[in-house]
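Same chain as my last thread, 157 residues:
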Amino acid sequence: MTPASAALKPNQLPIGEVARRTGLSVSAIRFYEERGLVTAGRNKGGQRRFARSDIRRLSFIMIAQNMGFSLQRITLALSGLPTHRAPSKAEWAKMAEDFRGDLEDRIVTLTRLKDRLDTCIGCGCLSLDDCGLYNKQDIAGRSGSGPRYVIGTVSST
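reply #2:
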């Protein structure tokens, strides 16, 4: 055992190792720590030490952000998980279940966008010849502003 590894508590990793394992920069990890998304302990020299379970938390944060979720929503999702230990399978499953509804909503919206991106999205612009066919006289606009066929409940049929 090297002197550096002897100072580590079991299952604790220095910030550089967490960065290497997650693919995040050290500054990004510090940013998430400042916002309370992960909690680091400190060794006698004051250096950050993270639990192995923080790799999962940080990976979830990275994926959720890449999917366009706000830090506020991610913080809310993670707020039910313990910060002082790895979450149990049941705790992680509960968090996932709560977050799943948001994912399902995004999937539906993204599918509508994908299916309508090259035709009418119901925005009322009438700038495409197709839009005149799908949204004649801006029928979608009667249900509200914006791209109603993508974000709203208006059917184009």
